[in-house]
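explain this chain.
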Amino acid sequence: MSGTTQDAVAQAIRDGRTALGIELGSTRIKACLIAADDPTQVLAVGSHAWENVFEDRMWTYSLEDVWSGLQAAYAALLADAEARHGVRPDTFGAIGVSAMMHGYLAFDEAGDLLVPFRTWRNTTTGRAAAELTEAFGVNIPLRWSIAHLHQAVLDQEPHVPRVRFLTTLAGYVHFRLTGRRALGVGDASGMFPIDSATGDYDAELIARYDRLAAGRLHGESVTALLPEVLAAGQPAGELTAQGAALLDPTGTLRPGIPLCPPEGDAGTGMVATNAVAPRTGNVSAGTSIFAMVVLERPLEKVHHELDLVTTPAGDPVAMVHCNNGASELAAWAGMFARFAEASGTPVDDDAVYETLFREALSGEADAGGLLAYNHLAGEPIAGLTEGRPLFVRTPDSRFTLANAMRAQLYGVFGTLALGMRVLEDEGVVLDRMFAHGGMFRTAGVAQRFLAGALDAPVSVGDTAAEGGAWGIAVLAAYAGAVKEGDAAASGIPLSSYLDERVFAHAPIDAVEPDPADVAGFASYLDRYRAGLAVEAAAVASLAPGR
């Protein structure tokens, strides 16, 4: 629809020649409507802010907040479509749902949640993850669903014998919308290891787990509890009448709309940055931050810093996942926004970020000897079971606003850089690295510092701020095109679809690493490693609430 008239766009929305993507992120639920025949054309957006809570020493979200948030984001998208195009859509060509990966959502026979949602942010599964890593011979991170399940088994939690269905947040929403217990292969790879040759759970590792947990779970195999695994482009069910009412309580939304396989935020980030082919990678920055690198060959060793997951098409990926991303940076920005308000000259949030980020550019390359730790939650890569955000300096550090903000931005990338150094040692080669997330909206700042941290070129596209909601909308459009037998898409691999139909003419801004930034960040990271002992001492000495 690129270059078409406003009336033509409105008619396409009425006809459902669109794709709707919804992503439940850590702090915001986003909805994104795109043109099915031109996925780069964003027609409307909507969002809703939400926050996890720390209850009974567990990070969680309530399912009531899931649905009220989804409804609010969807209603905001309808209002935006009407404001832009004079029409409120009541159908779509396809819908896709994505959300934070991993975690633990366990349901009984009646479909009732057995324990509060245990999110990816929890680090209480150390014993289970270690036991599974040894049994499987592959790294099982603390946040993976199988680690949560096995920890519950080891702890003999009373709900375990009643578990009949285990899924992720995206899988849960998809199930309620369609009635189908399915999951995209990328999201499924954060539940249990995937065999890329079969595109399904690794059969040998399933057998090993069944022997390990024999007699302690319902049924003969853990596969009975896990969602069906689907690759990008495969049909994943249709919106039921009950699902339509859940998303749109006004009753306007029509059922029968096909849905693509639900995916995790890692997979949609890869799609949003065209990083699904070997030797490509992406960094996604939000409440968490993670890097995904598509592999050409298996890794030689097991590394606790690296997860082995897949693209939405099922290709193997090394993932460096950090529980803590830009939340601490946002807290600092909020403090400066409040100062501006208290001084009688209030400034909007975007302007606060713009000012602070620009100030960071004038800071010293090593942040003047300052250190910032963004650990609100535990950070396995850094060896921390809990988080204590810290800002540290020595008497000879240069304590300026520019250095302080550069240290905060460096802090977002600190733990990520530790994991990426492991990939370098494995000889993994990257042709291109893309970045997306709200912190990259201020052009040339976070992108430049990330290039220095990775010592690699970093690209950002126009969709950097839309991120995963746009990515899952593209996956929905891809599935819709394949279903309709579109000659240009039917049977085409996802990587080719992205290259030829989505990113062929997309503007990309690439930044090469500045040698001074590379050297400065390396110095910062040396101090960062050494200072982790201070973080560990803070965890041991300062309990939350004291």
In short: The first strand starts at residue 18 and ends at 24. The chain has a mean pLDDT of 92.
